[in-house]
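worker-3 :: picked Cytokinin riboside 5'-monophosphate phosphoribohydrolase
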Amino acid sequence: MRVTAFTGAAEGRSEVYRDAVEAFGGHLAKAGVEVVYGGGRVGLMGVLADATLAAGGTVIGVIPQSLVDAEVAHTGLTELIVVETMHERKATMARLGDAFVALPGGTGTLDELFEAWTWQQLGLHDKPVALLNPAGFWDPLLAALEHMRAAGFVRPAARLPVAGDADEFLRLVWPTPAGDATGR
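worker-3 :: tokens ->
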């Protein structure tokens, strides 16, 4: 199984985000779940890749040539796929993953999250989309979504599952009777 992860090219101002992303990547690797992400070596993207690789996991990065040229590509990945545009990057990441998770990040993370979630709502894919919410990072977004739901702009059934850690995320996206999150 593969998780397409969206996260920041910055680390943020709190170590709690770095620690959560590091633990998430390590846990996925130990569970045998591969990671697909934006291919950068900087910020939480780099933390996720490094933690997953350090735990023996597989990491596939997808990055546009412009960011390779800017020297932000992670060169130590299992596989690095270089594409021409950001649109190609998102489409490739979506195709490669079996589930999506948004970790702490900024506008790029929001863009990727909302596109994957919107595509799910439109029936363009049936892959799970969830949030990892360390220290309540996504709480303001969840409140805004609830406001949009109450105002009639988001369907009542359209909810983003929220996980506090990797174990909970894996149970949310791949529940199995035996508790084996990888479905094996």
